[in-house]
From TrEMBL, chain A:
One Pfam entry name: ABC2_membrane
Protein name: Transport permease protein
GO molecular function: ABC-type transporter activity
InterPro entries (UniProt xref): ABC2_TM, ABC2_TM_bact-type, ABC_2_transport, Nod_factor_ABC_transporter
Subcellular localization, as worded in the UniProt entry: Cell membrane; Membrane
UniProtKB/TrEMBL annotation, chain B:
UniProt topology in membrane: Peripheral membrane protein
Alphabetical UniProt keywords: Antibiotic resistance, ATP-binding, Cell membrane, Membrane, Nucleotide-binding, Translocase, Transport
Name the UniProt record assigns to this protein: Lipooligosaccharide transport system ATP-binding protein
SMART domains assigned: AAA (SM00382)
Native organism: Micromonospora pattaloongensis
Biological processes annotated in GO: response to antibiotic
Amino acid sequence: MVSLVLPRLAALPAAAARSLSVMERNAAALRSAYWLVMISGFLEPVLYLFSIGVGVGALIGGLTLPSGQVVSYAAFVAPAMLASSAMSGALAETTFNFFGKMKYVKLYDGILATPVRPFEIALGELGWAMLRGGAYSAGFLAIMTAMELTTALRALAAFPAAVLAGFAFGALGMALSTYMRSWQDFDLMASAQFALFLFSGTFVPAESYPALLRWLVELSPLYRAVELVRSISLGEVGGAQLVDVGYLVGVTALGLMVAGRRMAKLLYK
Amino acid sequence: MTVSSDGALIHARGLRKRFGEFTAVDGIDVDVPRGEAFGFLGPNGAGKSSTMRMIACVSAPSAGTLRILGMDPLRQGPAIRARLGVCPQLDNLDPELTVRENLTTYARYFRIPRRVARERADELLEFVQLTDRAGSKVEPLSGGMKRRLTIARALVNEPEIVLLDEPTTGLDPQARHLVWERLFRLKQQGVTLLLTTHYMDEAEQLCDRLVVMDGGRIVAEGAPRELITRYSTREVVELRFAADAPEDIAGKLAGVGERTEALPDRLLLYADDGDAALAQVQQRGLEPAGVLVRRSTLEDVFLHLTGRTLVD
């Protein structure tokens, strides 16, 4: 038993180092054009916050939460935008970029000739995606704090929650990407992503949906992320947030496992 | 040459690879000792690349035994790959990185410290004569340069075995010779080379020993010269005729040389003394439009064993 477990434990730092080497590769490949892509991805949720959160919010006024707390519409929408930006940042990296590297650039074929294993590539790519997602989240939280939509302390607490959301979507996106046949399939995913963005309790409280629809919404990973981030930024954390965290951790683990397996199946021919 | 299996860096018995219904490698036995340059010669589809991928531990054998450096590819893949260098058939260099970064980044996958990686990258760029292109992106490089860079990349972990899948396919003659010369130097340094090729001249130049593959099986094994002596005559007369089909001429040459082989465009006449055989052809009143007397090559061995030419 010991002889079975020990080599595995010893292999852990090696595996982590190999995952890091995949992230290093991405850092080396950073070029000026990439920054443009990054900035456009960051701007999107900020624009939504101003147009809908602040703009439409002026027409709506205050919103009463189930707890009885009354908050401005902008404060209600902002955490949802944060969660969606974590989602889109992670997805951009683990879908388009990942698929292109795997299918067209054949980057992973080269890497798999080294000791690096498929799961370690998946982990490295996800870690890299999270650097991007994390940067988006930090920037957005700074804006929220400056606009007094949350407090600095709650913003700090919301950051890891947003990063967890990014991990879940990054892993999910990577797993889905291994099933994509061509770029056209990504149109479907973009539609799904947009539907999630609109209906995950982002702009309207999930409680206002009909019962059946509400069940569906509560199953959505973005809803879980929005719930988690919102409860922190509005100071309404409760037991339900354990479910959110568990759900997102579960999605991350499942996504990574599926991605690693599928990569091995596709690349170890 | 017989090699005991325990001394072999690569040891395969009854090795098979199936893709669904299709059998790419159909039970091959191979032993490669340290320091040898070993070749897989065969036409496209012979199973060379599938064999190489199994040895590179990126493709699981469907059946049979395979040991690389004494280890099991299925269970010890990372440990084996750490000691292999792989130059694939199609260059899969990183297009987003520079020439030098391609080497330093690749070194990191082997957990080679950054400083060592930089030193090694510079040495290897020197070795493959790409130092002046170190800062260039990969895309503008010529085919020969890309192939040299891929070879340099395969050497970044100082491998004990280097796998080269058709290292000079698609290169012009000058670029091929440069690659051959570098590979020859590696061989002199004692690196074990494994290469696939469908060029007989490449196999003759580089391989100490080779197997001829056809349809997933090994049809012959030995040193290039040995195979030629065993399966062919010393010389070959190539005859081209203006009007008659080579098959028709073959009928009129019974008794001349050891045997004939009719190709669509020419007739090959196998004889130990080519000039004497040619004289006999002329005595029979045949007047070929073109004549070439040459030494037998591995191409002739392959033709004899499979009835087909290597490069189609």
